[in-house]
Write a structure and sequence with these properties.
There is one protein chain. The protein is of the alpha+beta class and 359 residues long. It has ten helices and ten strands. Strands 1, 2, 3, 4, 5, 6, 7, 8, 9 and 10 form a ten-stranded mixed sheet that branches. A hairpin with a 5-residue loop joins strand 6 and strand 7. Helix 2 runs parallel beside helix 3.
Length: 359
């Protein structure tokens, strides 16, 4: 209710632009050891092992906070994208089409279905290019540069330095509404999780453009991180040492014993997965964007997606400058009060920064 009232008064002074909304989630750790009904153990951004709380944050087109929600740390963040966007449109009487922008952590078939089919909205999501997310043919296409259909287009600064390069998927529609447009018909499916006994899948097809980008600065950063990890692993000489690295002194309470199918003791051998290392080095600097906005220029899609840096910076502001963590409160209402103050402070900072001081 506080956020609704604040948004009402902001809108009176600066009418909100909600054509595109940016969404992301983070979590916060607490100085407690045991879980409560609200603070639960789950995947932590800082690899923290204790109870945490999640926060979903929604920004408007100008990256000014629009809405937020807090949830137990053991819950998935993906449903909160659908929930917050639906709530935002209802509260602000938004009847037009909204483009949802989020990173690969929010990219799932259910969210795409919600945006395109249920809400008649659009999306710009990042998509993982490693692992099982893409087929071998799709991964090969990312690295191709052999003809006009696989031509990279360079984007350079005023003195000619490469900022990034991109290419789009080349399925060209020959007739109808999208004639001449570069379109992929992507097939998705998801299972209903409300009823665990329901094994049926919802399948659907969307018109989707894929844009692959390569950023040389990002490539150098990612390769350095991979090589650092590899050098660290090379220093681990045995399986027992590796386990101790993971679980610390608790390793003294575990017996390590390996046996073959006949029950005979065998020696455990460890080695680097060079194939995985080479694959990650090969794809360093690449990123894939998938979007329903098939008529938009790829450089505009890239620019819109990279405005997500502002939401990441918003989380950093809350965690450092606004001292939202570590939190020393435990009652759920008090926790939400603490983080509501931080959220309102962040909103005021953004209004000063973007509206008063013109960015």
């Amino acid at each position: 209710k506080y956020i609704e009232i604040i948004n009402h008064h902001i809108n009176d002074i600066w009418p909100r632009n909600m054509e595109k909304v940016y969404f992301d989630c983070t979590n916060y750790y607490f100085e407690i050891d045991l879980e409560t009904d609200f603070l639960r153990k789950g995947p932590s951004k800082e690899n923290f092992k204790g109870p945490i709380m999640g926060q979903a944050l929604l920004l408007d087109t100008e990256q000014i906070p629009l809405d937020t929600e807090f949830y137990p740390g053991n819950e998935s963040e993906k449903p909160y994208l659908r929930k917050r966007v639906e709530n935002m449109k209802s509260r602000n009487n938004v009847n037009g089409r909204v483009i949802q922008v989020a990173d690969k952590g929010l990219n799932c078939a259910r969210n795409i279905y919600s945006a395109v089919v249920e809400a008649n909205d659009g999306y710009i999501f990042s998509k993982s290019i490693r692992g099982r997310s893409l087929s071998k043919d799709e991964q090969d296409w990312i690295l191709m540069d052999d003809n006009e259909l696989n031509k990279w287009i360079d984007v350079r600064d005023e003195i000619g330095n490469l900022i990034y390069k991109y290419k789009t998927s080349k399925h060209i529609v020959r007739s109808g509404k999208y004639a001449g447009k570069v379109v992929d018909y992507a097939k998705y499916s998801y299972k209903c999780k409300i009823n665990p006994e329901d094994e049926s899948e919802t399948e659907f097809t969307v018109k989707e453009k894929r844009i692959v980008t390569y950023n040389p600065t990002l490539a150098r950063k990612q390769r350095a991180e991979i090589n650092k990890e590899v050098e660290k692993l090379k220093k681990i000489l045995s399986y027992k040492t590796a386990v101790k690295e993971d679980i610390g002194d608790s390793a003294k309470y575990i017996n390590f014993e390996a046996k073959d199918q006949d029950g005979k003791k065998i020696k455990i051998a460890t080695s680097l997965n060079q194939e995985k290392i080479d694959a990650d080095l090969k794809f360093a600097g690449f990123n894939m964007l998938v979007t329903s906005e098939i008529n938009s220029d790829p450089t505009e899609i890239y620019k819109i997606y990279h405005n997500l840096w502002r939401i990441e910076e918003s989380f950093r502001l809350m965690k450092t400058y606004l001292e939202s963590r570590p939190a020393f409160v435990s009652d759920e209402d008090t926790i939400k009060g603490h983080f509501l103050i931080c959220y309102i402070s962040l909103t005021l900072i953004r209004l000063l920064e973007l509206k008063i001081f013109k960015d």
